[in-house]
Amino acid sequence: MHDSTRTTPASPPPVPPAPDPPAPWSAMAVLGAAQLMVMLDSTVVNVALPTIGRSLSAGAAAQQWTVGSYVLMYGSLLLAGGRISDVFGRRRSFLAGLALFGAASALCGLAPGTPALIAGRFVQGAAAAVLSAAALSAVLAIYRLPGQRRLALTAWSGLGVVGATIGVILGGLLTTTLGWRWAFLINVPICVLTGIAALRAVPPLSAVRRRPLRLPIALLTTAGLAALSYGLIRLQDGAGTGAAWLGILVAALLLTLVAVRQARAEDPLLPLHLLRLPTYALSSVGLSLAAAVMIGGTYLASGYFQRAHGMAAITAGLALVPMGLSSLLAALVVPRLAGRLGFARLYLCAAAAQLAGAGILVISTGNALIAGVALVIIGAGLPSSFVPLYTIGSSHVRPAESGVGSGLLNTFNQTGAALGVAVAGTVAAAAAASSLRAGATAAQAGTHATSAGFAVLAACAVLALINATVLIRLTRPVSAP
């Protein structure tokens, strides 16, 4: 008989989709160059401050604002910068931030007086916030393959240390050879060349989705932090200065208003609910303390070498190179140390190193060589703080909130830098003025000021040690019953 059954041929197995090809590294080179410039400008002016003070008759408060205004605007507007890149598109926002950064740099370089210089630094910081946020968003959008993304983010994290190191060297070199104005004017051709390269190397990366900008909240946050910095800086005129306490009161009112409004918002610019996570909140505090030590330390040290030891700007910049090199070397071994110690214990060791270095500078600032060794110790403790804190803070955030979570961590980082300069600089300036009134020489007053300023940073390190101890308990693995 004829078999009527028919065998249906097996359907071929589904063809898996072809994996995405690796993205070219040319975009990372362009975006990384812009981020390097942004980070460089947080320290490039430090070595030039005494020269700027003489050129523009800028006092201690004005010099603090020259540094603090940049990092203040940069930190307080980072989340707004991320929102702008969401709404208008990443490459478009990157190019707009780059153009504004170049224009603000030209304003700083051509400033006829201190008010114009500080105004330029405020605008420069705002542009840096848009530029940096758009660049990081573009990096995450372009490099989707896990291996590429890991390399890209590792390089991005290292740009902070590299930029801070290059900044003090370049600031001293330009100030000595071409004049302090070129510490800003050099950004103009860099912005032009980077913009041209971005048009060729960075894809358009259109807007993600329509979202409200929340600019009023961003401006209120910036105003509150600026009022706080103003009040802290004016305290160098004496604890009875009414303007100082008025600034602090206005800051408290504005920041309280921001917190209440954002806690009730459906799509907040500041995701303050993340601070209910203990590890996230402690990581945020730790980043503020570490940034205060880093930026406040370079601010104090650059003035110390010039005022207490009469070094030229370029020599003072070179004196800070060992601090930067120790940071770079520490960054190379951080992954291995974290694997052995755990991130929280590594952070504890980093805080101890910062306390040791700051303590040496409190009790022994008369010898430049000893001061340099102390700065090397502090430098080694910086990447050993930042990497663990970013890792611990972001690891307990839901994937859907990873963007705003990392943005708020960056905000705490940069805000801590601004407040570190304000507090340490104010204490140092008050100590210098007290020494001069007592008949000390300028060099002796500079030494006393440095010691007093680093006492503030030593207190930050003590708080970091306490912070690290709590984080060790919170991140300790739970043993099986």
Instruction: Give the strand tally.
Output: 0
**First-to-last CA distance:** 70 Å
Tell me what portion of residues adopts beta-strand conformation. under 5%
- Summed over residues and divided by their number, the pLDDT gives a mean of 83
- Low-pLDDT regions: none
Q: Count up the domains.
A: 3
Give the helix/strand class.
Answer: mainly alpha
CATH homologous superfamily grouping of the largest domain: MFS general substrate transporter like domains
Keywords: Cell membrane, Membrane, Transmembrane, Transmembrane helix, Transport
GO molecular function, one term: transmembrane transporter activity
Region (Disordered): 1-21
Main location: membrane
Structure in words:
The chain has 481 residues and is an all-alpha fold. The protein has three domains: 23-209, Growth Hormone, Chain: A (Up-down Bundle); 215-266; 273-476, Growth Hormone, Chain: A (Up-down Bundle), CATH 1.20.1250. It contains 19 helices and no strands. The termini are far apart.
Task: Walk me through the topology.
Elements: H1 26-40, H2 49-56, H3 60-76, H4 78-88, H5 90-109, H6 114-142, H7 146-177, H8 182-185, H9 187-201, H10 215-234, H11 242-264, H12 278-307, H13 313-319, H14 321-341, H15 343-363, H16 368-380, H17 383-395, H18 402-437, H19 442-474
Helix pairs in contact: 1-6, 1-7, 1-9, 2-3, 3-6, 3-10, 3-18, 4-5, 4-6, 5-6, 5-9, 7-13, 7-14, 10-11, 10-18, 12-13, 12-16, 12-17, 12-18, 12-19, 14-15, 14-16, 14-17, 15-16, 15-17, 15-19, 18-19
